[in-house]
Amino acid sequence: xxxxxxxxxxxxxxxxxxxxxxxxxxxxxxxxxxxxxxxxxxxxxxxxxxxxxxxxxxxxxxxxxxxxxxxxxxxxxxxxxxxxxxxxxxxxxxxxxxxxxxxxxxxxxxxxxxx
Length: 115
Known about the structure:
By secondary structure, this protein is an alpha+beta fold. It has helices at residues 14-30, 75-101, 107-114, and strands at 2-8, 39-45, 53-60, 65-72. The chain has a single domain (2-114), classed as 2-Layer Sandwich (Double Stranded RNA Binding Domain). It contains three helices and four strands. Strands 1-2-3-4 form a four-stranded mixed β-sheet, covered by helices on one side. Helix 1 packs parallel to helix 2.
């Protein structure tokens, strides 16, 4: 998995990059062999006019793309919330994939199986 962390309107910060990388490992815990992400991009954007900072995270896989956006006064909290949102979206997508593989027993499927 490729990981790209970009800093906008702010200098590069090693502690912030390490924090983001550590939290992105949480996303890898939910990714198994059936869902292999091509890459994860994180944009950390500081605003010079007011204290709200923005974090955008994009997770791209062969079957779906997930995007999370969070804003806040503390960049570390915004990173945590955005990654939590990506994890929530990833769990939803995995449930959808699992539900597609499980067929519901209806009259039509029972008839098709009996033939």
